[in-house]
Amino acid sequence: MSTPYESWTTGEPLVDTKAPDGPIAERWKRRRFEMKLVNPANRRKHTVIVVGTGLAGGSAGATLAEAGYRVVQFCYQDSPRRAHSVAAQGGINAAKNYRNDGDSVQRLFYDTVKGGDFRSRESNVHRLAEVSVEIIDQCVAQGVPFAREYGGLLDTRSFGGVQVSRTFYARGQTGQQLLLGAYQALSRQIAAGTVEMHPRTEMLDLLVIDGRARGIVARDLLTGRIDTYFADAVVLATGGYGNAFYLSTNAKNSNATAVWRAHRRGAHFANPCFTQIHPTCIPRSGDHQSKLTLMSESLRNDGRIWVPKKAGDHRPPQDIPEDERDYYLERLYPSFGNLVPRDIASRAAKNVCDEGRGVGPGGQGVYLDFADALARMGRAAVEEKYGNLFEMYARITAEDPYERPMRIYPAIHYTMGGLWVDYDLQTTVPGLFAIGEANFSDHGANRLGASALMQGLADGYFVLPATLGDYLARHPHTDTPTADHPAVHEAVSAVTERLYALLSNQGDRTPDSFHRELGELLWDECGMSRTEAGLRKALERVPQLRAEFWERVRVPGSGETLNQSLEKANRVADHLELAELMCLDALHRTESCGGHFREESRTEQGEAARKDEEFSYVAAWEFTGTGRPPVLHREHLDFAHVHPTQRSYT
Ligand SMILES: Cc1cc2nc3c(=O)[nH]c(=O)nc-3n(C[C@H](O)[C@H](O)[C@H](O)COP(=O)(O)OP(=O)(O)OC[C@H]3O[C@@H](n4cnc5c(N)ncnc54)[C@H](O)[C@@H]3O)c2cc1C
């Protein structure tokens, strides 16, 4: 079988020139000291575009405006506080060591590098661990109502892949509470006139002028009006691309358009195949489902995961005696038990289901059982800790989790891949920064639970405000681009023509039908486990599907009013391009690591086998045209502080 991508080309290696060397604990301090500063009185002369108002964008916009910059900010929701971050449930990590259980910045650093299966940048991860401590102080000062223990200190719980309790939480609504904190701070700046907020406005292209990011092309989703916005720098905080898979735990509107358009304009895309499958989601219930629901990982603190020992045992859970149950995570990984990292828990669930021991419709589920916790803690305590999650489960499945174990199954949840950024969070397009889930982040090949919120807020509140200042101080712009610049003209025409092409196509298929087909293909071939044959099959099919999309898609309505079908079609078109890069990246990485499990690369015990000699690098892909072989740039990863070993959680 052959694909148009039989060979991609290899470009110059990427070197992150911004990360200082020297002792790792001193690097961020040193970098900050070496940065040029913008005088407070000069900051108001600089305009910064921030696309996105989730935890990363909301915190960045508020902080930059508070520092004195003029911020122009965008989101496609009707309010900044409806960004997808609002859905985060379980918590946020920080190395506060309130529990005195052995935690430290060093341990959080170590856990994150190891949890990411040795595919992240040490300098970044160490900085993340350092900054984690400040995030909690910042959020408490804003009034975020974190849970507290009896003595009044903030309470914590454990998440997967760690043996300390460092996850701060606000019941099962941590994302919502943190986002309200960031939104409050942003609202203050909107009221003060330092942030110009554009809700219901979608960025559709990046303006690169004389080699620098100088603005965006955006569409007002209510009127269809296309406008250009100019700035001295552009920040993308546009979230992850998990919805390429159609079914995921992400908000329905989350999409890849902003990062993909930036990629097309020169920003390299790093590790696109590193997607995270979360082990505890409510199983899919039928073919017409359009969304999957997460049951927070925090439930694994007290819930026990099991399946029947015998294949094909369809008895109700309460009729299966204790000695006929297999608490497989506790059996296989006694030191971490139900709290092994997500990639490991997900694969283990798939394995027991593949053995015919799965439960529920189609055998695609495992039990998450609270019977022991209820007996030990009592219903009131369980309700206090997890009440809203139990209620959500009951509403969706019509089963009472206090009476009967929950059924869970892995699902697409997060993307570790994203735009390549240097230590300063700058992409390969000068003046274009990417923060939060939109960048390829600090999580390597597998993100540990409760560390996305930590990274988004570290980027937005602390890292970007410092590094962006350095960029602006070194690259002051004396001009403001205008609409008659050829690059602006070209970008606006491209956006307008594409929307016209979608609206005028007299096809017979909905954008959703293409998205669903693409999602199924990605899940089957580039999902929980991947093979060379499957990936080649997908690489053959995706371009065909893309061609079919442009021939057969039908978008009703006009471009001058709210038209969700048009929005959707435009996003699906980008998913159809990104999907190809995801599969190619997965094909080229013939090792298994973290969330990327290549069936051909496993240990004798069936665990993922990394190939450090060959693949200790970030794969950063350069765009050369739709359907054309991209260029692979490798950023070599050094592990001087956490030595790569075969990850063991036994
Ligand atoms: C159900 C669920 C639960 C989770 N729970 C946790 C948890 O407990 N702990 C944890 O650490 N992580 C958790 N995560 C992960 C975490 O929530 C996300 O990684 C994080 O919130 C992403 O934040 P962000 O600011 O990068 O992006 P988002 O919150 O996704 O925000 C993206 C923003 O960009 C805007 N945008 C995107 N594209 C465009 C465009 N083209 N034009 C204009 N605006 C655009 C959107 O309008 C939005 O404002 C969870 C994820 C899910 C799905």
Automatic annotation (TrEMBL):
EC number(s) from the headed UniProt entry: 1.3.5.1
InterPro entries in the record: FAD-dep_OxRdtase_2_FAD-bd, FAD/NAD-bd_sf, Fum_R/Succ_DH_flav-like_C_sf, Fum_Rdtase/Succ_DH_flav-like_C, SdhA/FrdA/AprA, Succ_DH/Fum_Rdt_flav_su, Succ_DH/fumarate_Rdtase_cat_sf
Entry GO MF terms: electron transfer activity; flavin adenine dinucleotide binding; steroid dehydrogenase activity, acting on the CH-CH group of donors; succinate dehydrogenase (quinone) activity
Record membrane topology: Peripheral membrane protein
Record GO cellular component, one term: plasma membrane
Region (Disordered): 1-21
Positions annotated as active site in the UniProt record: R342 (proton acceptor)
UniProt keyword terms in alphabetical order: Cell membrane, Electron transport, FAD, Flavoprotein, Membrane, Oxidoreductase, Transport
Gene3D superfamilies, A to Z: FAD/NAD(P)-binding domain (3.50.50.60), Fumarate reductase/succinate dehydrogenase flavoprotein-like, C-terminal domain (1.20.58.100), Succinate dehydrogenase/fumarate reductase flavoprotein, catalytic domain (3.90.700.10)
Cofactor: FAD
Database matches in PANTHER family: SUCCINATE DEHYDROGENASE 2 FLAVOPROTEIN SUBUNIT, SUCCINATE DEHYDROGENASE FLAVOPROTEIN SUBUNIT
Protein name, UniProt field: succinate dehydrogenase
Gene: sdhA_2
